[in-house]
Amino acid sequence: MSVTRSAVLDALGRISLPDGGDLVSRDLIRALTVEAGSVRFVIEAPDPEAAQRMAPVRAAAEAAVKALAGVATVSVVLTAHGPAPQAPNLKIGGHPKPQAGPQPIAGVRRILAIGSGKGGVGKSTVSSNLAVALARAGRRVGLLDADIYGPSQPRMMGVTERPFAPGGNTIIPLRAHGVTMMSIGLLLKEGEAVVWRGPMLMGAIQQLLGQVAWGELDVLIVDLPPGTGDVQISLAQRAPLTGALVVSTPQDVALLDARRAIDMFGKLKVPVLGLIENMSSYVCPNCGHEAHIFGHGGVAAEAERIGVPFLGELPLDLEVRLAGDAGTPVAAGEGPLAAAYARLAGRLVAGDMA
Description:
Order of helices and strands: HEEHHEEHEHEEHEHEHEEEHEHH
Number of strands: 13
Number of domains: 2
CATH architecture of the largest domain: 3-Layer(aba) Sandwich
Number of helices: 11
CATH superfamily of the largest domain: P-loop containing nucleotide triphosphate hydrolases
CATH topology of the largest domain: Rossmann fold
CATH class of the largest domain: Alpha Beta
Largest sheet: 8 strands, mixed
């Protein structure tokens, strides 16, 4: 039996405040999410002094919600009211702070980087759908959009809200389709460009890794930008990566850049856990004829050549594009396309990679 939002609010409405009333009647609950047995919310006190007095209230609220049938995990943040609470006042993109080697992220068991070397091969589409497929397989999944110049995950995951940043130091990420996600695109205006040099990119990656309250995750998927530059280097230097998955189409020109990505991960001492062939085949919806528009089998052959696992083929299909534009990844549905991502997720889980 799964817990409902109304049941959580009923429980919180029974938590009395020191100066009268309760958490719900006084309208102190913010950012409440209830999903698959996981409950997250923020208690926003009227001022910092009140917040100090409300530490027992926070503990009581957490205990009351945890006692509800169907609740597996509870995350509660106690903060104080301030100006524009819905908009983070974090300054993203400052110069990176000194750090002695890769630092683990609290609560995150594995970090998988999804790279390609080349743009346009569907790496971000694979990242979002793989995250959703893993969540449907029962994993606790996070998705970090590390493509600072071209963040696309907010659109693909259907997220339009701005994340909450209590105190301006910690960002509370958003949830969509069972996935905890964060993107710099959530902090920008629609169509706003990021015009930064390398050090600011490095600082942004450090902040998105360390200042986001990711919670308990089995795996954090990092959607990398194309290429072999600052973001990739910063990620490898700042976080203990479990490994990388390289996405490519089967055509030779894409494989050339995929080889560069593989070489980059080798130089950064990040193990390549497998290769994925995207846009492997296209089936005509009218006649059923299967065509290999970008070739076929090139990625599998490359995986065999360099001695890494070939994790599977993903088709080229109009539904994948339509689903991504609509903000509901195709892996969240049913049918052969969702099944393809479910098989990919299953291989990662079986191999203890996710």
